[in-house]
Specification:
single chain, globular, eight-stranded mixed beta sheet, 8 strands, TIM Barrel, alpha/beta
């Protein structure tokens, strides 16, 4: 795999600073039952990195110390972490809002028959990957059979009450097929809702449109095809300064499977150390740390969050 970091280091992206810390995004490991082209984590069934029990205990202590109210669980497939259920139960006891970045097909995997019921019982918000509402596009990007399993998973979640109101919130995530910006989120959301309801009886709350980041597997593919520079130019040309106000890194920190802290999930995948303590720092060393007004490490990939309508873990920014 070709590393894109060297192409991102020389940047003119504007400097930004943090606000009050609100969200902890936890990468529970890179193990996944899928291997998608657009994956910025390079997750796959062959990865062995998994957050261990002692690290999870440090996470819970950090949450208590900083009064964190939202925890965003990601991976890989976060549900494949053997401590997933214990962590969710501990978070529920603390009345923390939990988001699960679910690839949907994990719901249909043998051994995970418990998953949908468990998520509903614990009122976990599900943010589910669904890069298109057409079978040929989904299977081309994520593998044969993924679309059918995704539909089955969504129907199972709907049967439990997901997608009907905000008590069991279900959101879908769209990624472009290649080096292009996502279309307007609101119009695409309505297309998704109309098609999935008519064809499969599926309901969901919101659609999030995310730009593909020029890092890891997707960035390597761009380099191999000679498209990296063109894609970066597209992101820079579409830069919108107003998106800077709402980028997710201002109120979020990203924690890797070992407990080390980064400014965002993308910086984590690039190995960009946050400047909290002038070097790579563990969650345990930040129990009394004040994150407010701290500088955020930026490089050219940050244009992926500020191009066009903007892109964050919660969809478009404008």
């Amino acid at each position: 795999m070709k590393d894109t970091l060297v192409y991102l280091e020389r940047t003119d992206f504007p400097s930004i600073r943090r606000r009050k810390l609100e969200t902890l995004q936890l990468n529970l490991g890179y193990l996944c039952n899928q291997q998608c082209l657009h994956c910025h984590v390079d997750a796959s069934p062959r990865r062995t990195e998994i957050m261990q029990h002692d690290t999870i205990q440090s996470v819970l202590k950090f949450i208590d110390t900083h009064a964190i109210r939202t925890v965003d669980l990601t991976g890989g497939a976060p549900e494949m972490n053997p401590h997933f259920r214990e962590l969710v139960k501990q978070l529920r006891q603390r009345d923390v809002h939990i988001m699960d970045r679910c690839n949907l097909t994990i719901v249909c995997e043998p051994g995970y028959e418990w998953l949908a019921d468990f998520l509903a019982e614990n009122h976990v918000e599900v943010i589910a990957s669904m890069p298109c509402y057409l079978q040929e596009n989904v299977d081309a990007q994520r593998g044969k059979g993924v679309f059918d399993d995704s539909i089955k998973a969504l129907q199972k979640l709907n049967a439990l009450g997901y997608g009907d109101d905000d008590s069991l919130k279900l959101s879908l995530v769209y990624n472009p097929q290649g080096p292009s910006l996502p279309p307007a989120q609101q119009a695409l959301e309505q297309d998704y809702k109309n098609f999935l309801l008519e064809k499969f009886g599926i309901r969901f709350n919101s659609l999030f449109t995310l730009a593909n980041m020029p890092i890891k597997r997707f960035g390597s593919t761009l380099l191999s095809k000679g498209l990296f520079n063109d894609y970066m130019q597209l992101l820079k040309t579409a830069y919108q300064q107003t998106n800077l106000d709402n980028v997710m890194c201002k109120t979020l920190i990203s924690v890797d499977w070992q407990g080390f802290v980064y400014d965002c999930d993308f910086n984590q995948m690039l190995g960009l150390k946050a400047e909290f303590n002038n070097g790579k720092v563990h969650l345990c060393d930040l129990m009394s740390f004040d994150f407010n007004q701290r500088d955020i490490v930026v490089m050219d990939h940050c244009y992926g969050c500020t191009a066009g309508q903007g892109s964050s873990c919660g969809g478009s920014l404008t």
